[in-house]
Fold each of these.
Amino acid sequence: MRKTKTEEKNQKTIQTDDGMLSSDFIRNIISRDVEVKKNQGRVHTRFPPEPNGYLHIGHAKSICLNFGLAAEYEGLCNLRFDDTNPSKENVEYVESIKSDVKWLGFDWGDRELYASDYFEQLYQYAVQLIKEGRAYVDSLSAEEIRDYRGTLTDPGKESPYRNRSVKENIDLFERMRRGEFKDGAHVLRAKIDMASPNLLMRDPTLYRIRWVSHHRTGVQWCIYPMYDFTHCLSDSIEGITHSICTLEFENNRPLYDWVLDELGVDCHPQQIEFARLNLSYYILSKRKLVELVTGGFVTGWDDPRMPTISGLRRRGYTPGSIRSFCERIGVAKRDSMVDLALLEYCIREDLNKSTPRVMGVLRPLRVIIDNYPKDQVEYLNAANNPEDPAMGTREVPFSRVLYIEKEDFQEIPQKKFFRLAPGREVRLRYAYFIKFVRVVKDEQTGEVVELHCTYDPKTRGGDSPDGRKVKATLHWVSAPHAVAAEVRLYDRLFLRPNPEAEKDGTDFKTYLNPDSLKTLTPCRVEPTLSGSPPGSRFQFERLGYFCVDPVDASDEKLVFNRTVTLRDQWAKIQKAQQHR
Ligand code: ATP
Ligand code: MG
């Protein structure tokens, strides 16, 4: 099938080959500023989330950048909640944001700040603009304001209220604050230029009436400042030097500068835009993610399939792997799509070093070793991480009845299937060579229910004394010793690399992957895993990295999330790109 233009575009991925952070354009700007002692050589950044949802991996990019810059230049980074839209914001979101930033490893010291703390100051700034004739109260309806704004090709039209006297404006604005008007009756607008080619400069709204209680200021205010007015002034009040934001705010920069210039503030931060992170097969927009949560398409913000920090954490991602991912993608001026495979590469790289390897069987098939003494149990030595002897060894019980993976046996082996089949001998990891004897099937369904094999006692530990070779090594557990567990396997949340970009108006939820979660139960894992605390991580040999689900696991029930498989797609993608 031919690819559509969008699909082709979506497949472009950015590549960073080594983990090294090259100096990027933002660091170049800051280094120069520091050198010429701009802002007395200070560097002060901020991370400014709106508490209207949980943070996602895109925010992690911004967090790593802002806090990272502060650390590199021995400066400071504030955590500032941009809380000017009370109808969508709440304390749950504030708390989750704080815990996510902390978990990622960053510290805002005593600078947990809120735009809402500046409401009085912002109000006074607005009064100053009115007095200088740079703002006015408009009484057009929202719809009329939209009509008057014009389009990219047509200039806007001035509101009939644009030339109200300062006195009248002050009076109306004060009464707006006092609560004399209903939602939408008036707004405060900047008086800039209704013919500006930049639509945002056509007398943008600075304040609107909202009879909504705020999670911090309660019912103290019924007028709330708009983002463009609040953001630049909050930056200025906090003494921010470099205000780093994503590219979609490029058009807002003239307004950012206009407000600060008109008010003649002492601190005028420099706004710098960089490309936001887009991650293939995911959606990074709180507005859309909240739809998945409220619509019940996922189990919550921390569903392990979500690209949220809390989802990734529950899935088993480490803070280090996310930081390393953000470093590798770097910052650029051009929008691009990062391949999910890179994120998976980063977590694998981290877990490979740190997690113990264990054995667990996801789809158990009983195997009876006919020539193994009935009541005998042996404890075999298994390496906790063959790549790191310092991680030690453990004892794994072996007995006459075992479980192996269903898919490790084929009665009529396909081409290139080298595992267990009639006539075959294979190695059981850390244990013995076993040889197929016969298969037992369900008489009704024909399903394979049990295998009978024999073992060779001379191959203890998995080595053959006579140099005999086998083509496969299987993982296994001893049936009477194994512990039952539920295992959740995850796949990408969407079927398309960029579900947001479908231009035909199709709802992005149409592309949800119906197989993004597979729950397997009962799986059987080795007894050392019994009682593993929530959040502990393991590599199940041959199957991937898993962690104990921090929410649903309990003393009675082991639940594992698969963080990632062992298959490295990233190396493949890189190779393909090099050969292009
Ligand atoms: P969303 O669309 O998810 O709601 P947002 O930009 O509205 O994103 P904010 O809470 O305003 O969310 O974002 C806080 C900071 O994080 C902003 O500086 C924003 O530019 C940055 N940010 C948000 N999404 C991304 C992303 N995908 N990549 C990089 N930075 C991002
Ligand atoms: Mg935003």
Amino acid sequence: MAILEEVRKDYGVIPNYVDGNFVEAPADGYLDSYNPAKGEIIAKTPLTTKEGVDQAVQAAARAFEEWSQLPVTERIQYLVKLKLAVERHKEEIARIISQNMGKTIREARGEIRRALENVDAALGMPTITLGKKMIRVTSNIDEEYIREPLGVFAIVTPMNFPVMIPFWFLPYAIATGNTVVLKPSELDPAPMYWVMKVIHEEVGLPPGVVNLVNGAKDTVHSLITHKDVAGVTFVGSTPVAKIIYETASKAGKRVLAQGGAKNPEVVMPDANFERTVSNLLGSVYNMAGQRCLAAANIIVVGDIYDRFLNAFVEGAKKIKVGYGLDESVDMGPMASKKGKERVLHYIEKGLEEGAKLILDGRGFKSEEYPNGFFLGPSVFTEAREGMIITREEIFGPVAIIIRAEDFDEAVDLSNNLAPYGNAASIFTESGKYAREYALRVNAGNVGINIGVAAPLGYFPFGGRKLSFFGTLHGQMDAIDFFTDKKVVITRWW
Ligand code: NAD
């Protein structure tokens, strides 16, 4: 393949996928979807109307009747086909992700790999969802529980992992016998449209088991309050997660809502220096910082601070920014113009508050792609607790490097700089500090010498404080979310 080969130049108006057919969405309007490296429109996202949402939910509700009755051992055969089909098309799907979201092709390939891990994990559903039985709870009486699917699930996802995040839920939802209506981000709808095409052509799922509706806020509201939707999974920013949690709960749905992040990562003086620097550079700047597990506040303990800062900034300067489809590029553009403006706004705020911008990525210009939404890497120092830039999610290629006197201060800063609790990491060679950090930090995913603490599909995806609304988490926890336990008590005279 040529280095910059794009699967299509233009994806046109993205269709919905309803009842086993691609259909033109009944729409209230259309939003432009971009190639953010070129700053060119490559697709139109229809804003699906309430009627369009209803068609998809009705199709899913009809499909539920038979799909839920199919033995789980047969349902997972479709997952085998899904895995093989996506594998066959992984390169083209990765290229579409890069073209529509902006991340590098290497990151996009990694995204597909992480998406498919969830299919692997969901293949264990026959054993995972086995019921439990106690015989002779009293004479002649046995008691057991079985798990049952609930119906139609709405899956609402963000722009940063347009394929992986739908796969945090979709394989588990359908393997447990539910049916789904997926609403991807309006910013980059092309990758999931392509995955649906692959599903349509090569997986042969019964019509209505998986449906796709495109749109934004209003489409989401019609979906999550629809009378025939049993539950909602959401991943996105905290303000929206809160709205979804409140609105869908009020409408009587089960809700699992993962929000934004502001992850602290601690560097201890005994850390493996080179590996820590390179890990943290990757954590902050890969995907141009648009990752919910990215390092945001880097807390460096003790005398190592100057040496770390110097090496980190030198490393950041070497990052090659450009069109993600170019294999030599390390960091793509921001996914949207609005996202770029948000980062510029936060950099201004940081400067107003007195932090020092020792590496300024605002002026980055690509000669080849002058209209792209690019930013170079930035680094702030002299930021303090209470500042907006240490508290709020910037979601861009900006590192904030803070000095702490000792381990205890680093733990306090980790827990108090920001009201989020998605992830936290520590870099150290000391088992004692590693253990203590893991136990004392209030975050759902903890990394020990890991810059991006991303759990495998076989584990729940944590998240605390403002990073999560609900009880059960994604991935493996979603099996409890997608099923209900029914108790059967039996007496034979
Ligand atoms: P976003 O909140 O803007 O959008 C997410 C989804 O919500 C989209 O499908 C969008 O159409 C919909 N939406 C937006 N506004 C809405 C509203 N008012 N009412 C109903 N629906 C609405 O998020 P984004 O910019 O697409 O993604 C980035 C955010 O997602 C970051 O905050 C990031 O930290 C977070 N994220 C979190 C996790 C996690 O696991 N916790 C994972 C990935 C991304």
